[in-house]
Structures are given as structure tokens and as C-alpha cells.
Amino acid sequence: MNPIIELQKSHRSIRKFKDQKIPRELFEELIRAGQCAATSNHVQAYSIIHVVNPENREKLAELAGGQAHVARASDFLVFCADMKRSTEAAERAGAEVIRGMTEQLLVASIDAALMAQNVAIAAESEGLGLCYVGGIRNNPAEVAEVLRLPDHVYPVFGMSLGYPDQDPEVKPRLSLETILKEDYYDDSRDEEQVAAFDATMHRYYNERTGGNKDTNWSEQLAPLFTTKLRPHMREFLTKRGFEMK
């Protein structure tokens, strides 16, 4: 197997980091690699906030749900969907810009995610570890205030980056047969395949925690769809100019 595919298949979330800084030259190369990701119509509808101030790192760690690695990692990035720069550029070029379209929200969010994944792969290729931080959206208005984000920009997620101080196992994924459909969406075997994956995840959690975690994939989904819905996001996005028209 080629080494790039092997690297991608070895991804783990790292939440404990060594007290070692990423050299600035390497850090900037990771960001440049991120910029080479695909982007819709070359809009490049993202901005990355590199949070250096220790007090702000502590604030963001708390706002993201008390995730200590946000403050302790070598570097912390917040990937933002940014429609401000491109719409203003189009206006300066003479366009009568229409803002607030749902497609603009999708384009900017997808651009930010693609860019971040390129950064992630580049970082792991250099022996670094990382953890995506969706908890940034727990309190997006407060996060936006800390980062001084203008309208038409919103924080999609964060990323802790650094040298790993742990070596967790790769978490299992759903089988290829479950997520890869041929020609049309066929869910005739989904229940069977999910049951098999539940058994795999039960073994994984049981072995990883020495028997202290008795659960599976389906059971782990419950909080996501009952207590982590983030109902504030629609109002927050609308106030920031993403009206979803």
C-alpha cells in the first residue's frame, strides 16, 4: 500500500501533547499545504485564526467544553467559513453582490473543512498529532467575540496541533459495504451491518478501557441526537449574515 494511504488510515485523535513547539517554518508549510485543497470556484472561502494569546487559549478551552488540550497543545487553530473577503472583492470589481444565500454557507463551510483536512494530513506526515474541536460551536457567539470575527465569518471548528504524548489505537470505522453504495441508495442490509459494527465497537471500548466502558456505536450516538443539537446555531448564523435564503 502506498505510504500516503497508510498515513490516512492511521489517523487518531490526539488529546495529550508534549511540551514541544512546532517550528514556525513547519507550521507555515502546513498552512500552505492546506491552501492547496480544492476550493469551490477558487473562492477560498476560509480564514484560519492562529490563537497564540495564552488567555484566549484558556477561554476557548472552556468555551469548547473544558477541553484542556486546546490550551496545552503547541498550536491551536480555528477554521472559519469566510464569505466577507470574497464578496467584498467582487463588489470592488463592480458586482452587485447578493449575500446570505444558503449555497454561500455551504461553500464556505466545505472550503474550510477541505482546507483543514489538508492541514491535518500534512501535520500527520510530519509526525504531529491533532484533534478537531467541534466544541467551538458550543458557544459560537462568545468564540466569535474572542476572535473578533466580523459579519459573514463564522467559526466552523478548531484544531489542536502538536507532538503526540500518547499512542491511542485507531478507532474502527463502519465497513466499506455499509457506506459504499452502487448506483443507488440501498439500505437493505444496514441494520445487519450496523449490528456487526456495534459488536466491533463494543469490543473496542471494552478493551480500550479495561472493561470500564460497556457501550457500542449506536448507543454512543444517543447524546448527539438528544443533548448536543446546538439549537442556537441557526440564529447565530443568521445574525452573522448567513441568512440561508
Automatic annotation (TrEMBL):
<protein>
    <submittedName>
        <fullName>Oxygen-insensitive NADPH nitroreductase</fullName>
        <ecNumber>1.5.1.38</ecNumber>
    </submittedName>
</protein>
<keyword id="KW-0560">Oxidoreductase</keyword>
<dbReference type="GO" id="GO:0052873">
    <property type="term" value="F:FMN reductase (NADPH) activity"/>
</dbReference>
<keyword id="KW-0285">Flavoprotein</keyword>
<dbReference type="InterPro" id="IPR016446">
    <property type="entry name" value="Flavin_OxRdtase_Frp"/>
</dbReference>
<keyword id="KW-0521">NADP</keyword>
<feature type="domain" description="Nitroreductase">
    <location>
        <begin position="10"/>
        <end position="163"/>
    </location>
</feature>
<dbReference type="Pfam" id="PF00881">
    <property type="entry name" value="Nitroreductase"/>
</dbReference>
<dbReference type="InterPro" id="IPR000415">
    <property type="entry name" value="Nitroreductase-like"/>
</dbReference>
<dbReference type="InterPro" id="IPR029479">
    <property type="entry name" value="Nitroreductase"/>
</dbReference>
<comment type="similarity">
    <text>Belongs to the flavin oxidoreductase frp family.</text>
</comment>
<keyword id="KW-0288">FMN</keyword>
